[in-house]
Design goal:
By secondary structure, the protein is α+β, with helices and mostly antiparallel strands. The protein is built from 14 helices and 17 strands.
């Protein structure tokens, strides 16, 4: 009896995908052609990148020329690209005359004007040790207010494409600010304080002196490792954090807190008002502490009265994540359009309840969340927020 042992390649390949069978020559990949295409694409991309840098440098030169011409007794003498000074290379060297004589501008064009970039440029200038008649100028699409302060502190000049500028040297002082800064700042903040970014920032601010590995920070924030890295890189660029040996640590926790609080929109602003017949905030809180368990957390004045009393308040603001009917029935609340004394807010982001705790039988938001809610609250909220920061946050 003959047994047919012929193996059908297609059948075996489909059944056992790890077995690789020789392919017919007419189906083999043209590897040489693919390599050539990849090489051509790389060269084209590099050429486009270089062209983009050239255009950026030309645009920067034109911006500086217009700025200096508007300054009055300043004349443009010449410009030379790629100047090396003290072992440090700059994109261009521009010679001008001022009432004090000849002045040289060492210009560097960067794609970003974040604090990290400015500090790198400042380091290069310090190593170059330019002469006293030389001004180092950074040109970028946008320089933030923090960047402007850093430039002044480091003795650097700057200019952005909106026309904001600061250049100070022998016989020359140019200072312009406010040109398109609001829209540009809003763009920066939009990317820095996205919803998931703030989860990472919240974790960092909870332990501001701790050094975090990316894995620990990712797990603590419930954010993917890739997204966590993006946030850390952004915070590092803005000068709020430093990365060292695989760990991240906040370097300006107070500045980060203030910047976040300034743009934070509290859900309490959209809270629904109710009238509670119980007289006084203290008695209302006593009644709430003895009410049946419910998923809630106090904030604003009611929470402040329990952790850092400073400004007297009468209203009770409550975050509610569960069945709010329990609270409504327990406090005998009636909805009102105006004149309420109890306000129930549904959080749009559950992270506002992170680190909530129980004080005197009442659930209260974390100190960090309390600060964020108070910061822009109209009725002396800023004063109370600073009190919370001083006593409880330590940043």
């Amino acid at each position: 009896m003959e047994i047919d042992l012929t193996i059908q390649p297609v059948m075996v390949r489909d059944t056992f995908p790890l077995i690789r069978w020789p392919r017919p020559s007419h189906l083999r990949r043209p590897r040489t052609k693919i390599f050539i295409l990849i090489l051509l694409f790389t060269l084209i991309s590099e050429n486009m990148r270089n062209s983009e840098n050239d255009l950026t440098l030309k645009a920067a030169s034109l911006l500086l020329r217009d700025l200096l011409q508007a300054a009055g007794d300043v004349k443009w003498v010449d410009e030379s690209p790629r100047r090396t000074v003290g072992g440090q290379t700059f994109d261009a060297a521009i010679t001008i005359t001022t009432p004090a004589g000849r002045v040289k501008l060492l210009v560097d064009v960067r794609r970003s004007g974040v604090l990290g970039t400015i500090q790198q440029f400042g380091g290069a200038v310090a190593l170059a040790r330019p002469r006293s008649d030389t001004i180092a100028v950074l040109v970028a699409p946008f320089i933030s207010e923090r960047g402007r302060e850093a430039c002044k502190r480091l003795g650097l000049g700057f200019m952005d494409v909106a026309g904001n500028a600061y250049i100070r040297g022998p016989g020359l002082l140019i200072e312009r600010w406010g040109q398109g800064t609001r829209a540009a700042e809003a763009h920066v903040l939009k990317h820095l304080f996205t919803r998931k970014s703030t989860w990472v920032i919240r974790t960092l601010l909870t332990e501001p002196s701790r050094e975090w590995t990316l894995t620990a920070l990712s797990e603590g924030s419930r954010v993917s490792l890739g997204q966590t890295k993006k946030v850390v890189d952004r915070l590092s660029d803005e000068g709020y954090a430093a990365k060292r040996r695989g760990a991240t640590r906040l370097t300006d926790a107070g500045g980060l807190l203030e910047r976040w609080a300034a743009v934070y929109k509290s859900d309490t602003l959209d809270a629904e008002g109710f009238f509670c017949p119980i007289k006084g905030q203290a008695k209302t809180l006593d009644e709430l502490s003895s009410a049946p368990p419910a998923a809630y957390a106090l904030t604003l004045g009611a929470a402040s009265s329990l952790v850092a009393p400073f400004v007297r308040s009468t209203d009770v603001y409550v975050y509610v994540t569960g069945d709010r009917q329990r609270l409504i029935q327990a406090l005998d609340l009636s909805p009102v359009e105006f004149g309420g004394n109890v306000y129930l807010a549904v959080p749009t982001d559950d992270s506002v309840l992170v680190d909530s705790r129980v004080i005197k039988g009442l659930t209260v938001v974390s100190d960090l969340q309390l600060y964020l809610d108070l910061y822009n609250y109209p009725a002396r909220g800023r004063e109370q927020a600073e009190r919370v920061r001083e006593l409880l946050l330590g940043v």
